[in-house]
Amino acid sequence: MVKEKDFYYKKSRLNQLRGFCNVVQCGCSGVKAAARAHIEPTAISKQISSLERDLGIRLFERARGHRLSLTKEGKLFYELAIKQMQGMDSLFESFNEHLKNFNDNHLNIALHYMAATYIFPNIIGNLLKQKGFKRIKIDITEMSKTEALKKLENKEVDLIFFPFDINDEILNKFNILKTIRHNHALIISKEHPLANKEVITMEDLSKYDFLVRGKKVSFAIDNYNLKHSNIFLGDCSIDTSVELVISTNGITAIPEEMFTHGNLKYNPNIVCKNINHLFQAAYLHALTLKNSIPKDSVKFVLSELKKIKAD
Fold first, then answer.
1. Is the pTM of this model over 0.70?
2. How many structural domains is the chain composed of?
3. Which of 69, 80, 107, 117 has the smallest number of Cβ neighbours within 10 A?
């Protein structure tokens, strides 16, 4: 019957190989190898004995006075084993270096344009005030939700933050944090026929040119069969879309927060109309990839987002 300690040494292949290589590098001295590894000589002896038993060969000749010398098989095995051990040591060193960089030096985020403007500046500011993130590199990119989901799945970004309708199906490969409601609104000219109407209907919207605000915009209104103008705004700024709304008497969609918390509310030529009643509720969600090691910086961002309550 194999004793418990023998079983441990037999199954710990890394310890066996490390012990064997240490003995050879210490001039075939088990005592010196044990001192080098800060373990008892009996532990080295068990590592070598169990390795020889597993291989079915003798790696050392044993002379009087416990002097050891490599057999020809032992020499061949050492030539192979030392390459494996050097690779393993290099792996550990490389992993530790990458882990340090992974946790401390780089944060890559993909955001909805409203979140990039009105939510994340304060979060990033708070992050940089923390002692551990003084030298962190932060990449913040506005993009479409579809593109962001692909990049997150491919581990090209660490975290994404976008609106999702309540009936949207989010794959279970993602961790999900629900935050604040994403309010749907229209920007129209103060001279527009809908400017003074209290309750806007889908029939009302279908009568007017709708200016589509580019592929980065994730907005429920884009999914409806509205009459579109021949102006496509691409990735133009909100200021460009506002000026075009005024000059063409068209309509465009924005998150209401961009109006209430930004400079748009001071523009005397436009009106913001809430249209939440026309669409399913949407909430801003933070997504991270499951089964991946969370960065310290990501943990901090999520802790900040948890302070934003969903209604």
1. no
2. 3
3. 80
